[in-house]
Amino acid sequence: MTKAARGSLLGIEHLEPAEILGLLKQARRMNPAKPRPLLKGKRVVLLFYEPSTRTRTSFEIAAKAMGATTVLVQSEGSSIEKGESLLDTGYTLRAVGADVIVIRHPHSGAPQLLADHLDIPVINAGDGMHEHPSQALLDAYTILRHKKSLKGLNIAIVGDVYHSRVARSGCHLFSKFGAKVTLCGPPEFVPEVAAMLVPGLRITRHLEEAVRGTDVIMLLRVQKERLAGMKVKLDDYIARYQMTPARLKIAKRDAIVMHPGPVIRGLEVAEVADGAQAVIVEQVKNGVPVRMAIFARAMAKR
Amino acid sequence: MANRSNAASLLIKGGHVIDPVAHVDADLDVLLRDGRVAEIAPHNKLRGGADEKFDARGLVVAPGFIDLHVHLREPGQTHKETIETGTAAAAAGGFTSVCCMPNTSPVADSPDWIAWMQHPDRGASVNVFPIAAATIGSEGSTLTDFRSLRRSGAVAVTDDGKPILKDDLMRDALQLGAQLDLPVIQHAEDTRLTERCSMHEGPTSFRLGLRGITADSEAGVVDRDVHLAQNLKARLHVAHISTAAALKPVRRGKRAHAHVTCEVTPHHFTLIDENVGEYDTNFKMNPPLRSVSDREAIVAALADGTIDAIATDHAPHAPHEKQVEFERAPFGVTGLETALAIAITQLYRNQRLPLVRIVDLLASGPARVLDLKARGSLSVGNHADVTIFDPKKRWTFDASKSLSKSHNTPFDGWQLTGRVVATIVGGRITYRAS
Q1: Which of A276, B124, B378, B428 has CA atoms 20 to 30 A from the CA of B161?
Q2: Domain residues for B110?
């Protein structure tokens, strides 16, 4: 096997805009309260090599709502702990009857490896610093509930872009639909090379510049331990890059504030996270219909 | 060493001899006798007779190729390769001599292991010149016994893969090497800067979310080593150079007549970081595939003589070792069987380097780097190591048919030009294309 099975979702980068629109359209038709049993009798394995709250529960609830049986496999308490390779784990899960594998993994490219060798759809629930496609889809879905279209929209992504799979998937998606994306942060978080990820990406070191006249502000989680090894001091970072009510005022009046979570209050954001313009809880909620749409696509008969 | 002095004689007839050292680029017959080059003369002008004849019409007859950098994996990692399988692959690639790296298990840091590698029981089909570890266990703390290692056959010392970073230790190694006229080979990488890194630092590593190995991590070490070699009048050989930045100190050293040499691999003058695609571990090696501008600089340095040799860094790994997450996969790709064809396709056909330069890089240059006596040229009296190839033959490389035990090549399925027709070691044909 050298090609991912149809219905796999490994990243946003190689998706056609039409496929993305199809998924978003499907998500709008999905009602978690009145689900269609499209996955009845199917076995969904959630293979999680990293901790996760919202992504895991969201995939699990989506799958169950559609009638699937779900099995959670985590690195602790499984053969993974004994040193079983990713591929052997994948073959084992396939042998016991998995119909779809949802994988979260600390190494970039792990879902690709699995998909290259299995004949069932593989869904990437976040791989290393690479992609987090379901998050980008739910972000787009959320934005489109507040804005007419992505085209021409100004989107500022603020924080640790270098380590962020959310940022990479978001950039790919927003750029495919003609949004104007600005990355903002110190060079350690937003290296110059980031601008080459997709056409038209802009980089600024000044939050005010990123936020001025923007429609969407996406904040990324900043891990204290990552700041530790860098030239950036925690206090400096907060002073320069924390999203404050004053800074939010520079954005468009109807700008929305997003965050993929988990939010570390007092670092990248404080009171703004609970303000009227924040859509952070809504993002989490939208994760369920979006992931239902991802499952529907994975299981679609063609 | 496969030193089969054969009483029989072999006449290579009708071929086109290219010998960069003797400045020969002409149609000549070559007579090999008793393991040596006995006579070279225009067609049908040879005086001596031969027991066996080889029809080389339409083919190039070159001094036997020498690979300065291979991992034969023995002792210890025989599931990847053995001296027998690795040298069979070498013969198929036109190499009559290979220099094998000491990162075996155990590390080749003692005269006993150096002798063991050259023992006839290993079943080598080409000459094996071991390179010994520069420090005990390649742990970077205590120098090995260079003198006795050389006496047992080691042609150089290196801690390949575990670069010598400590300034004083590298100085001591070069100094001791200088006393014995033994080259020190350095895998130039400041590993303090490359922890958890798996490919070249650039737009592709950012796109894939992989930590990047910067060009500076190579150039910094080369720069220091060239300075040291220059001051100590020692012999430094830079292994698998891969960046434009690292070529600068090499050029500087050469201009100052320091005894500094360097090699480049076929994959580094052919491929770039983008070729990693979607995490293809057959494109993961160290140093990593670099940027387009690095590749251009490498090709320019091949043309202008800054680079002394093409070496494969043949690094076999088993499928189960390579079929893992990209960051967890071992570095290294195979290369013995594709080196000539990649060189001809990429350098001769695409970049217009003369064929004589390619033979120099594969045969004469490597012999000069390690001062391998009576090799790298077809002068009368030299070892009868000869590579015969068809520079026009088009073929497709099929990794599954490789003679190496491992098939981790980035060139599987590539359409190539230039193929080895026969490999002659010590006057005996050890490989013949079917």
Answers
A1: B124
A2: 64-369
